[in-house]
Amino acid sequence: MTTTESPEWAQVLDEFELSLGRFEEYLAAVETDADSTQPNAWAPPGNIGEIPEHLRPRAELLLERSASIEALMAVKMASVAPSGQSNNRRRSHLTNQASSTYSTKL
Prior knowledge:
mainly alpha
């Protein structure tokens, strides 16, 4: 393997990207009161070393996307009125997810 190959880090970023997509789908489903399953929070593995320089731009884009998702979640949580059963369900889903945010350092 050459120094520019990083299959472990490439796989980690692939998994992070898929996880972000699942969370975006979840937020859309919660917004429309559709049945949805709360996605599992993603956490980077702690044992693969520093991210290679050539993958850093992709990681930064994913972190920006993660921050956008968090901001959207904050807006949705603030917009959920305290009354009504469906609003309570949405607030519950969003509040539970807020404790396991995707924000992380790569």
